[in-house]
Design a protein that fits this description.
alpha/beta, FAD/NAD(P)-binding domain, five-stranded parallel β-sheet, four-stranded parallel β-sheet, 11 helices, 25% helix
């Protein structure tokens, strides 16, 4: 294409929409799976309809949250710079932590790593900050337990495991994160002992065949499972169970419970007990209509219950939100199409086929790498319960082999979570 042709093509593109003599500004807070999905989709729409998209994230590196257990076991992940993932999209990337949100002024204060602070204005804000482990409810968890909240916290556990290779690791929480972490650590550190502690059997939200498989796999990996126990306190030398028994451990990994990051609550938005933004069926804040939330940052209620924080549900919310980001149309809009997701397959009952989500190519390369565990997010909702499970390396063996169950009649899916 010649320079003249390029100039002509650029001239035919619609310019930015001006709202009160300024460009319509969409700001997405958080560049995880859902934030990237929302920002990339919004950018494509603004290229046609006008406007500008800004993506704010504390790190310029894309964090593969589903792979934090691999870092914790001592593995290194590929470096995936966010600027590379959004190259050519027209998105402005701002590296910094969203410190304050002022809904009255429609501004966000962002603090960079060097302490410099800047203020970004918005017409529409999207909160996609994810969640962190709840280390507040149980005494001692915040001081003595490791978490998988970030690459930094996961790397701290890896350092401890390297320093005490023969020590015992107590993994608290028998959900999918705890199961996968226990399996990965046991596989990578066969000289130590891994104890998985939970109120229920591993994978309590899964079907009976899946739970049986997990039990056999964990036994094969040497993971000692203690179900039906509650942790009352985390100590420097292990955990204390309700009733007073102490389980000695060189390291404690906390994977049970979660809470949303506090930005929304501190800004005065309506939030639920976990700090998630209470949204309507178009993911718009019920208290502040110019703010939206996706993924773990949103309390998304469906007819069958509140969406659980997994990529299976989170990525579709980002994909949905990207279709709603647009500057105000010239004429009054019609009623927005509400978000509707099927119950989590393999959780509320036998699996059910949902709507696949196919991320953009560069994002897909980041979140859907090849590996023994398969592509966890490819065709979300199509392969259950495997689609619920993050990809991994050796320790993912505890979760391999799960196969889709027969597709049920609609009435069989609508049971309790």
């Amino acid at each position: 294409m010649t320079a003249a042709t390029q100039a002509a093509a650029h001239a035919r593109r619609p310019g930015p929409v001006l709202v009160g003599m300024k460009t319509f500004q969409i700001v997405v807070l958080g560049a995880g799976y859902t934030g990237l999905m929302a920002a990339l989709g919004a950018a494509r729409r603004t290229r046609r309809l006008g406007g500008r998209v800004t993506l704010v994230n504390p790190s310029s590196r894309f964090t593969e949250r589903l792979r934090m257990h691999q870092i914790a076991s001592g593995q290194r992940l590929a470096d995936r710079p966010i600027p590379h993932l959004i190259a050519g999209s027209g998105i402005e990337f701002v590296e910094g932590r969203a410190e304050r949100l002022d809904p009255a002024r429609r501004t966000i204060s962002v603090v960079a790593a060097d302490g410099a602070e800047r203020e970004i204005g918005y017409d529409v804000a999207v909160i996609a900050l994810g969640s962190v482990a709840d280390t507040v409810t149980v005494p001692g968890a915040d001081a003595h337990a490791f978490t998988l909240d970030s690459p930094h916290t996961a790397a701290r556990l890896a350092e401890r495991l390297a320093a005490e290779p023969g020590g015992t690791v107590a993994v608290v929480g028998a959900g999918l994160t705890g199961v996968e972490a226990a399996g990965e650590i046991a596989e990578r550190h066969p000289g130590g002992e891994v104890v998985l502690l939970g109120r229920e059997e591993p994978g309590p939200m899964m079907s009976a065949p899946a739970r049986e498989y997990l039990g056999r796999a964990l036994e094969r990996l040497g993971v000692r499972v203690r179900a039906g126990v509650a942790v009352a306190r985390v100590r420097p030398d292990g955990v204390e169970l309700a009733g007073g028994e102490v389980v000695p451990a060189a390291a404690v990994l906390w994977t049970t419970g979660f809470s949303a990051r506090p930005l929304a609550r501190e800004a005065g938005l309506a939030v639920d007990e976990k700090g998630r933004v209470v949204v309507d069926d178009t993911l718009r804040s019920v208290s502040h209509p110019d703010i939206y939330a996706v993924g773990d940052s949103a309390a998304i209620r469906q007819a069958w219950g509140t969406i659980h924080g997994t990529c299976q549900s989170g990525i579709p919310t980002g994909a949905y939100r990207r279709r709603r980001h647009r500057p105000p149309p010239a004429r009054p809009p019609g009623e927005a199409v509400p978000l509707r997701l099927l119950p989590p397959a393999g959780l509320a009952g036998p699996p059910r086929r949902g709507h696949p989500v196919h991320p953009p190519r560069r994002l897909a390369e980041a979140v859907l790498p090849e590996g023994p565990g398969g592509r966890a997010l490819q065709g979300a909702g199509d392969q259950q319960p495997a689609a619920l499970l993050p990809h991994g390396a050796a320790g993912h063996a505890a979760l391999r082999g799960l196969r889709p169950q027969p597709r049920p009649r609609a009435s069989s899916v609508n049971g309790g979570r």
